[in-house]
Amino acid sequence: MPLSNIWFNTHHAPFGAHASLTLGFAGAKGGLDLELCRPPDQPVLVAVESAAQRNLFEALPFTDLPDAAERRKFVNQEVTAHLADLSLFAPEQVRRDFNIASDRWSAGDLSYTLYTPVPGPDCPVPDPDGQAPGTDEALKRACVPAVRAQLTVDNRRGGQPRRVVLGLRRSALTRGLHHLRGKGGVLGIGDGLHQGVLTDAPGAWSGIGFDPLGSLNDPHPINRSAMLGPWGFIVAEVPAGELRSFNFAYCFHLPGTVTAGLATRYYYTRWFDSLLAVGEYALAQFDEAVQACAAADQRLARSALSDAQRFTVAHTTRSYLYSTQLLEHEGRPLWVVNEGEFNMINTLDLVGDHALFEARHHPWTIRNVLDQYAQRHAYEDRLQVGGGLTVPGGVSFTHDMGAHGAFASPGRSAYELAGLTGCFSYMTVEQLCNWVLAAGVYVQASGDLAWARRQADLLQRCLASLEARDHPEAAQRIGVPRADSSRCEGGREITTYDCLDASIGQASGNTYIAGKAWAACVILRHLFTCVDRPGPAERAHQQALRAASTVAASATPDGRIPALLADGGDAVVLPVIEGLVYPWFAGCREALRLDGEYASYLKALARHMTDHVLHERACLYPDGGWRITSRSSNTFPAKAYVCQFVAREILRLDIGEISRRADLAHAQWQLHPEHSYWCWSEQVDNGVVHTAHGYPRGVSSNIWLAEKG
């Protein structure tokens, strides 16, 4: 797809390994990232010998040129006489073809493609819990912790052989490089104990030295076994008059216990006991992986999405895959999605957004996370009603399960603190809604009513908790959560929009939270009906009716829905419509009929959008991008993606040109010539990425593929 800037980093990440070959930003700005959560700034060498000059190698511009002083420092005169030279292809000589499962750079006679299969029909990810016969191999294939690469050189017009070199500089001073030798001629370079690159190319050999090309022309082949120096590389040769491709695998393998709080190991260690084992399998399955990648690319290319939308879907999906971990705890699978650079574990803020993608490809991961929350990270609190009186609140769930590979204590999170009114306060009511919303999406996607029956008591407790957070007395309920958890200890609950202003960051009486509470009650009614609990189903129905009526009635005479019920202010907020997406994907589309039971509510939301939100004076930037609230220049693109879907597909707003401009703007933000170093990022201030780098939540953009138009 055409790109205004081809020099952006993206994750090339295997499923469930929290690992990536991050590449795309010019310079030594990529490399092998194993749980690092940022680009490693490791030079990656991909070079071919020039057809015009022997011993001159031309490389893609992802590496540094050899330093002359360093060459003199460590190389004796005899070797210096045989040193090869390195030049970089000029940026204008390089072409890039970026897709969801492949990424190809071409320059001169060289082509270099990275392949990362994504979950889908050609790369299924079976449920590892209670596997059916034959699914183990499919799961192994989906979870091999490797990124395949293919380096192709066209030497059909050449009159002499040309060498290719693929290499990297070691990533840590505490672990050196070493040679890897495996079965079937597989060989490569290990960068420390846990990552490396391997090939099965015929006639290839590996070298280690102080210079990326320092050992190429050594007249003594026995010296290739040397192990000193920061550079490792693999060399192969293309005969004169031939076009030849070489397969490589960038591999990761982290054995043993990898988390604290709960002792877990990577699920892939069931099948692979070393880097070599990973590399041998990845190379043996190379053709199948390429075919799966081609199929995924073709599905996206055949979609009705624009080029800007396809770019966004591809880029965001890659960051999501990087953040994933399939772990094993006490013999059972344990699914984790880490929160990008913040690296919090299974942040419940994001679970609902991820569920919109996971429901289409591997819904068992939603169930796995919901069960983890139910078993370990649920809690009961009390609510401050007034005059010092507190009443039981009910069940809710923590913001996250821990951070940086360390699970928090039961009922606690890494993020939430008492006594605050902004960032790092509790998100009790939003997480309560999120658990219910994700549960509805899971049951609809999987058809797993047995799970819904097992969780029916907890779902009933969730309903009671939503009712209590509105008001402990039924006669005074309005359908909107208005109480703060006792865990705040004098502070205020916040929302996922924690770093924005109070119009959207305060949970109590917030119409954004009201929309999520309405959606949760619609879904609860549906689930209770499915498991034959008519009493709770009717209570959920009444609470949804209250929420819809309250929000619709709150609109000002000109149609603006205030951000906060108690203090309307003048803020215009976009996400009052966000909650509609969950009933749509949870089997509750009857509730979203524009002429149905909630018609007045939906009409009020639509008018709020057309008359207030979608204007530059409110929630549109000058470039057409969407912002969350008129009161902040900071926005969360992933949330805008969901609201775009809601506006177009559910509310049926005629916003074709507005959407087109937004898609272009949102893509351009991620292609900024400086900030595109950070892969896909979630927080953008006035069109400039500034934090939440490598974030997984943007994968919600995949719901665009479900639009009927």
In the CATH classification, which architecture of the largest domain applies? Answer: Alpha/alpha barrel
Name the overall outline. elongated
Remind me, CATH topology of the largest domain? Glycosyltransferase
Radius of gyration: 27 Å
Number of strands: 27
Multimeric state of these chains? single chain
Count structural domains.
Answer: 2
What low-confidence regions span 5 or more consecutive residues with pLDDT below 50?
none
Question: How do you describe this structure in short?
Answer:
The mean pLDDT is 95. This protein has 18 helices and 27 strands.
List keywords for this structure.
elongated, alpha+beta, 6-stranded mixed sheet, 2 domains, Glycosyltransferase, about 700 residues
How would you describe what is shown here?
With 709 residues, the chain is an alpha+beta fold. It folds into two domains: 10-298; 303-706, Alpha/alpha barrel (Glycosyltransferase). It is 32% helix and 21% strand. An eight-stranded antiparallel beta sheet has the order 7-8-9-10-17-14-13-12, covered by helices on one side. The protein has a six-stranded mixed beta sheet with strand order 6-5-4-11-16-15, with no helix packed on it. Strand 21 and strand 22 (389-397) form a beta hairpin.
List the helices and strands and how they pair.
Layout: E1 10-12, E2 19-23, E3 31-34, E4 44-49, E5 56-59, H1 68-74, H2 77-80, E6 85-88, E7 95-98, E8 102-107, E9 110-115, H3 135-143, E10 146-155, E11 162-169, E12 177-181, E13 187-191, E14 195-199, E15 205-209, E16 231-238, E17 242-252, E18 265-266, H4 275-284, H5 286-302, H6 307-322, E19 324-329, E20 332-337, H7 348-361, H8 364-376, E21 378-386, E22 389-397, E23 402-403, E24 406-407, H9 428-446, H10 449-454, H11 456-470, H12 502-505, H13 511-530, H14 534-554, H15 581-585, H16 599-613, E25 634-635, H17 637-650, H18 656-670, E26 681-685, E27 688-693
Parallel strand pairs: 5-6
Antiparallel strand pairs: 1-2, 2-3, 4-5, 4-11, 7-8, 8-9, 9-10, 10-17, 11-16, 12-13, 13-14, 14-17, 15-16, 18-19, 19-20, 21-22, 23-24, 25-26, 26-27
Helix pairs in contact: 6-18, 7-8, 7-9, 8-9, 9-11, 9-13, 11-13, 13-14, 14-16
